[in-house]
Amino acid sequence: xxxxxxxxxxxTILGVLxxxxxxxxxxxxxxxxxxxxxxxxxxxxxxIVAGTxxxxxxxxxxxxxHVMGILAIGAVxxxxxxxxxxxxxxxxxxxxxxSYSSTFLFxxxxxxxxxxxxxxxxxxxxxxxxDPLLLNSILVIFVLxxxxxxxxxxxxxxx
Length: 159
What we know:
mainly alpha
């Protein structure tokens, strides 16, 4: 695994910071929203992290992490449109929730891949992309994401 560049460090530190604000927003409000300070900070940092991901090419060119970055940018803008307009009509709150919560998935999947393949530095936990620990970690993240989305949709439906 190549060493982390300065851009990679900035990307990583901001990514962790974004996740902290995102977790806070989800715990306090049950949703990520632009109108909440923590949600706004999370979404702005998410855009920066997603943008910087497009300039990191230490693993042989354009790859899945870059796709996640593009999806994250799209999700932030889709969520903002849903939150601030009536473009999606009665589905706006659901689209907003799905979009903003999906950015969490787009943070966690690449972070898990990189984290398990880089740490500890002297002897990374995972050495191969098909390692069951790595694949099961991604599966757990995805299942938690689905549970979170369903939970948010139930709250919205009950309103």
